[in-house]
């Protein structure tokens, strides 16, 4: 893959064992709950309109995070459920699974949340999300015409992303 | 998966794309000159440089986090060290040190012995109030704001004004907790 | 993961959450709001067993468990609504930084949790077993009042045994 002038993307592309169409959809949110990007590859079921869907997703992550911070069995002193925490404070989570899908979640200290929904049997995707975060930095953040905090409209990013997600097994 | 520690500033610096330092220095000089011509007031130029730096900082932070493997910035002391040791090395190729902590750990100084922005620069008498490197304070302020730290940044020492180093004072005003962003009735 | 000298941290909650007919199944746009509405509807059907014995620090009091339970309940419902394909039954496994949470839901809506060290295997089996114990020693007990906190000594004893057996099985491996 050729990036602008060969800038290194780290971590390097995680190896995939087999390719398949395992990706269902992906969300990118910023700290203020703005959905910067929504990509959909395979989603036969829609229960809500798009705006409600994004809000519900963000709310789910937000609440699950306060739940895990409260339930953390390794820390004795925890704040009450739902008390606002500093970014990076408290125990967070990186994925959950239901019988129909698996959701992998990553949050950067700058408040960027990346959510990838895949087939329930996909493996550990934490490295893949880091890689996607790097793509976001290269194609979106470094694009001088992109205004931070606004929805991403960047064709090059979308195509690269689609291509990468197709390779995830 | 074991947690990966932060990468060193040198390692990242070795791997990023670089441009000729003189081209960079000259470009920055030209920008400052143009601002002085456009805005006329030195104070206004300081403000504008800070704003430009801020706009860079709020973008640069993601590049920094993505490349450095830093996953949490909760502790201000740790964050200041990381900025000085990894951040400055990664983007400017110089190492900064952190000193002069106050008693409650909310105020410190970042000291730069070497600064590629000021090669060839001599401040003329007409620009004595100019903080030539004010873009740097804006970058630091913008980057920290993105990790929820509101800071106030001022120059304590400036080599262009005859001091022996560059010293940025970083004062933590507050850390903003994450709130649920949506209003209830929507 | 450490083998041999591994410490197994297992905490079990069984939650019995009453089916409600009002709008708790249709969360509004904001997840959080629903949470607290649901929280008000439910009241004490929590059963906690032997939490302190399994190395969990910072044991939750009843109020906290209640809040966690109602929060979990709505998260479960929302996760179904966000499913890309139909037929979703809610969260089965939540992987947090310091623990895994396995959840088993019976067809009647009772939810069983196990909180364990990341990567601990065979928790589904343990949960199914606990479900059997629950049907035996709780539901079949004529003095157990439906939807009330479980205070059945036989259940406690068998549960402790099941978890210890699980621990032995893991150590032997």
From TrEMBL, chain A:
SUPFAM superfamilies: SNARE-like (SSF64356)
Record-linked InterPro entries: Longin-like_dom_sf (IPR011012), TRAPPC (IPR007233)
CDD domains for this protein: TRAPPC1_MUM2
Cellular component terms per the entry's GO annotation: endoplasmic reticulum; Golgi apparatus; TRAPP complex
Cell compartment(s), UniProt: Endoplasmic reticulum; Golgi apparatus, cis-Golgi network
Record's keyword terms, sorted: Endoplasmic reticulum, ER-Golgi transport, Golgi apparatus, Transport
Gene Ontology biological process terms, A to Z: endoplasmic reticulum to Golgi vesicle-mediated transport
Superkingdom, natural source: Eukaryota
PANTHER family: TRAFFICKING PROTEIN PARTICLE COMPLEX SUBUNIT, TRAFFICKING PROTEIN PARTICLE COMPLEX SUBUNIT 1
Subunit structure, interactors included: Part of the multisubunit transport protein particle (TRAPP) complex.
Protein name as annotated: Trafficking protein particle complex subunit
Lineage: Eukaryota, Viridiplantae, Streptophyta, Embryophyta, Tracheophyta
From TrEMBL, chain B:
SUPFAM superfamilies for this protein: Ligand-binding domain in the NO signalling and Golgi transport
Pfam family, one: TRAPP
UniProt KW Endoplasmic reticulum keyword: yes
Main localization, broad class: endoplasmic reticulum
Domain of life: Eukaryota
UniProt keywords, alphabetically: Endoplasmic reticulum, ER-Golgi transport, Golgi apparatus, Transport
CC terms in the record's Gene Ontology section: cis-Golgi network membrane; cytosol; endoplasmic reticulum; TRAPP complex
Protein name: Trafficking protein particle complex subunit
Organism from which the protein derives: Prunus persica (Peach)
């Amino acid at each position: 893959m050729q990036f602008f002038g060969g800038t290194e993307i780290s971590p390097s592309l995680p190896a995939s064992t087999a390719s398949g169409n395992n990706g269902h959809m992906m969300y990118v949110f910023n700290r203020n709950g703005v959905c910067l990007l929504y990509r959909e590859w395979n989603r036969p079921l829609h229960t809500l309109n798009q705006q409600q869907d994004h809000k519900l997703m963000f709310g789910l992550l937000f609440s699950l995070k306060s739940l895990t911070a409260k339930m953390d069995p390794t820390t004795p002193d925890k704040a009450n459920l739902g008390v606002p925490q500093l970014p990076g404070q408290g125990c967070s989570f990186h994925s959950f699974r239901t019988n129909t899908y698996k959701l992998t979640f990553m949050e950067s200290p700058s408040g960027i949340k990346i959510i990838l929904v895949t087939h329930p049997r996909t493996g550990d995707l934490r490295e893949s999300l880091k890689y996607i975060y790097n793509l976001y930095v290269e194609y979106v953040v470094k694009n001088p015409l992109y205004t931070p905090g606004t929805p991403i409209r960047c064709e090059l990013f979308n195509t690269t992303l689609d291509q990468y997600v197709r390779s995830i097994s | 998966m074991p947690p990966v520690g932060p990468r060193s500033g040198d390692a990242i610096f070795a791997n990023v794309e670089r441009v000729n330092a003189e081209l960079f220095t000259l470009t920055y000089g030209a920008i400052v000159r143009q601002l002085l011509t456009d805005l006329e007031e030195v104070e206004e130029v300081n403000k504008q440089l800070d704003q430009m730096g801020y706009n860079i900082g709020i973008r640069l932070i993601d590049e920094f986090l993505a490349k450095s493997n830093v996953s949490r910035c909760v502790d201000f002391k740790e964050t200041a060290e990381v900025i000085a040791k990894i951040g400055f090395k990664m983007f400017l190729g110089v190492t900064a040190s952190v000193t002069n902590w106050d008693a409650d750990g909310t105020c410190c100084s970042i000291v730069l012995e070497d600064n590629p922005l000021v090669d060839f620069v001599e401040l003329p008498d007409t620009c004595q109030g100019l903080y030539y490197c004010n873009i740097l304070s804006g970058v630091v302020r913008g980057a920290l704001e993105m990790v929820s730290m509101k800071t106030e940044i001022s120059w304590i020492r400036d080599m262009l004004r005859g001091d022996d180093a560059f010293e940025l004072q970083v004062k933590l005003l507050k850390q903003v907790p994450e709130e649920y962003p949506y209003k209830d009735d929507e | 993961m450490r083998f041999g000298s591994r410490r197994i941290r297992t905490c079990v909650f069984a939650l019995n959450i009453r089916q409600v007919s009002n709008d708790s199944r249709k969360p509004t746009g904001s997840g959080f709001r629903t949470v607290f509405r649901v929280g008000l509807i439910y009241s004490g059907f929590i059963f906690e067993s032997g939490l302190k014995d399994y190395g969990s620090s910072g044991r939750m009091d009843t109020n906290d468990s209640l809040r966690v339970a109602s929060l979990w309940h709505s998260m479960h419902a929302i996760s179904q609504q966000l499913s890309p394909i139909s037929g979703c039954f809610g969260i089965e496994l939540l992987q947090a930084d310091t623990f895994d949470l396995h959840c088993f839901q019976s067809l009647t809506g009772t939810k069983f949790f196990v909180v364990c060290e990341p990567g601990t295997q065979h928790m589904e089996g343990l949960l199914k077993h606990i479900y059997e114990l629950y049907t035996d020693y709780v539901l079949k007990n004529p003095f157990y009042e439906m939807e009330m906190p479980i205070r059945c000594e036989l259940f406690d004893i068998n549960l402790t045994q099941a978890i210890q057996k699980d621990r032995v099985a893991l150590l032997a491996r």
